[in-house]
Design a protein that fits this description.
Radius of gyration: 15 Å
Structural class: alpha+beta
Oligomer: single chain
Number of helices: 4
Helix content: 25-40%
Number of strands: 5
């Protein structure tokens, strides 16, 4: 699913590119705005009308504060998929209210410092695209944790 042209892309854009390559009719609308503060997130979310059963918000924020806002504002959309990566090389893919914002870990390493991070993130992004495809095809919402040995656990 994932190709070399997508290396370095924002996670959401890479996931959407994966889906669009397989389904030409698939469309997505990136927010395309610079987000500097948490109030920017709330303002952007309040201007978008998510009322379709197939509308989907994909949360790929890499900071706890932004993830908390998305989690608190879940009433704005019926379908929110949270995708996150840990410096300890595990990723979580959780739908809606099943998601719990991780606690701040000041001793946490930067995931980019780990030489195994790139292939792990590429795998996790590709797997996330399959989870999204499953949602659009069958309306299934399964949660997953992917561990560093590419062990996938449905939770």
């Amino acid at each position: 699913l994932y190709n070399n042209a997508q290396i370095g892309m924002p996670k959401v854009k890479a996931i959407m590119t994966c889906l669009h390559l397989k389904h030409k009719k698939f469309a997505y609308k990136p927010i395309d705005k610079k987000i500097n503060t948490t109030s920017d997130i709330v303002n952007i979310m309040s201007t978008i009308n998510f009322n379709n059963e197939e509308d989907l918000i994909i949360d790929c924020f890499d900071n706890i504060e932004s993830r908390s806002i998305i989690n608190e504002e879940e009433s704005i959309a019926k379908n929110i998929l949270h995708i996150g990566f840990s410096p300890k090389l595990h990723s979580e893919i959780y739908w809606d209210k099943d998601y719990s914002v991780p606690k701040e870990d000041d001793n946490s390493d930067d995931i980019c410092e780990n030489p195994l991070a790139k292939p792990f993130i590429l795998f996790s992004v590709s797997f996330s695209a399959m989870v999204i495809e499953e949602f659009f095809a069958r309306k299934n919402k399964f949660n997953y944790i992917i561990y560093n040995k590419y062990n996938i656990q449905k939770v």
